[in-house]
Design a protein that fits this description.
With 292 residues, the chain is α/β, with parallel strands linked by helices. It contains 15 helices and 8 strands.
């Protein structure tokens, strides 16, 4: 249905180091844009239902891409290939490739950290605002220690295993299960697509993508300058804590707000899709000055 009503584009863009970044866009390219970035070990497939939501498509051009090292994008094998500037350049390649003008950045989990890359290396008008969805706000050992819960930390040895296929696959299934409130109720076609995405992250690269150097100075400067921030948090998130992120938002962002869902999971955009879409649309309309 959506494909018949809206233009759907799937393509790759070359970043500044030649790495190809998979991206897709749905809707009317003349509308304000929202750019979605997935979490650790997954891909843009996680946004499939959000990207086809008629309420969002009525007002916004919806874009998603696979982070480098993930999904259908290129996978540099060195720490230099995962520099903060390159992550910012990836976002710029997608934004420029689709002709976007100051889109709203929407990150989930580890994908939220890219806002720090963007605000440090790109011009102030590169984005109009930030949405952090059950986020890791930026990569820093102290922040990771404060935000990451034991349920996800214990999975890292299995996710990074290169010599135990059974452990690796079992851990990926367990990792995906931690995303939802009720894993058995999630349709198999969704769970399998997310698990399959997780196999595309090279286990040897896990440490690189979760510990790459970042400087949050640009993020803090943008927040002090009034860049709007919306934070989604879930009370039943099995992976990340929300409270340390709220403190960061209050301390560094002049214009910040939090939507807390008491029963919200890590993938609350899936488990609580209607609420997520409603709050996201309301925030995006405010950012872009849409009064409908």
């Amino acid at each position: 249905m959506t494909g018949a009503l809206y233009n759907v584009t799937q393509t790759v863009f070359s970043s500044t180091d030649g790495t190809l970044i998979y991206a897709e866009a749905i809707g009317n390219k003349h509308l304000p844009a929202l750019v979605f970035v997935h979490g650790l070990a997954l891909s843009a497939l996680v946004w499939a239902q959000i990207l086809r939501d008629p309420g969002l498509l009525q007002y916004f051009y919806l874009v998603a891409y696979d982070m480098r090292g993930h999904g259908r994008s290129g996978k540099p094998a060195t720490i230099d290939g995962h520099s903060s500037k390159l992550y910012a350049d990836d976002f710029a390649a997608v934004s420029n490739g689709f002709g976007l003008k100051s889109p709203l950045f929407v990150g989930w989990s580890l994908g939220s950290t890219i806002a720090a890359d963007i605000t440090f290396y790109l011009p102030p008008d590169a984005i109009s605002g930030i949405v952090w969805t059950t986020p890791m706000p930026y990569i820093d050992p102290d922040v990771i220690a404060a935000v990451a819960k034991p349920d996800v930390q214990v999975l890292f040895p299995g996710l990074s295993s290169t010599d135990n296929v059974t452990l690796s696959l079992e851990t990926r299934h367990a990792f995906v299960d931690t995303l939802f409130n009720d894993p058995p109720s999630v349709p198999w076609e969704i769970k399998w697509s997310w698990v399959a995405s997780s196999t595309l992250l090279n286990p040897e690269h896990l440490a690189i993508v979760t510990s790459r150097p970042q400087d949050p100075a640009g993020l803090f400067k943008a927040g002090a300058g009034g860049l709007p921030l919306l934070v989604f948090s879930g009370g039943q998130d099995k992976q990340l804590r929300g409270e340390p992120v709220w403190e960061i938002a209050r301390k560094y962002f002049k214009d910040s707000s939090v939507v807390f869902t008491p029963k919200g999971s890590h993938a609350l955009f899936y488990d609580f899709k209607d609420q997520y879409v409603h709050e996201l649309a309301r925030f995006a309309k405010r950012v872009f000055g849409i009064r409908k």
